[in-house]
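Aim 2 progress update. The chain analyzed this quarter is reproduced below.
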Amino acid sequence: MENEALRNILTRRSIRKYTDQPVEEEKIDLLLRAAMAAPSARNIQPWEFIVLTKRESIDKLATFSPYVGMLRDAPLAIVVCGRTDSEAGSPDYWVIDCAAAVQNILLAAHALGLGGVWLGVHPRRERQDVLEQIFKLPENVVPHSVISIGYPAEQKEPANRYRDDRVHRETW
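Predicted structure tokens:
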């Protein structure tokens, strides 16, 4: 495959095991820049990001869901939130916009030699409540997801998930 962008997309995998090497600030900055380069309905950009690099901060998240055990070893976590108020202008599209930002972070992490995994929060009210309390979020900000990130301590082969039976042309 010759195209670097396509190779990055097709070889990215969810990574749940990390070395103890911290993620450099320059790379964190690039991850956030990639997130904010995501498409956004009417270019409203309703996303907000909470960056966690301190062990005690990340450990607070280790129980908000039964599927977040990898956070115990992650040197970096990014909580992606969305503004839902009418002033943000995107009360209906914040979820889609934040999902695009999450995907950009995951692809950027892979391109930078990092691994990451998307941990779902929205629409699970019980998960949202925990994060809203931990971070004392304003009423107009809703936690969307958490991304666990670090230098990979595991390697995974690319997954071919293409399914021709899911492709319809011109009509169903």
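The beta strands are 47-52, 76-83, 115-120, 141-150. The mean pLDDT is 95. These observations will guide the mutagenesis experiments scheduled for the next reporting period.
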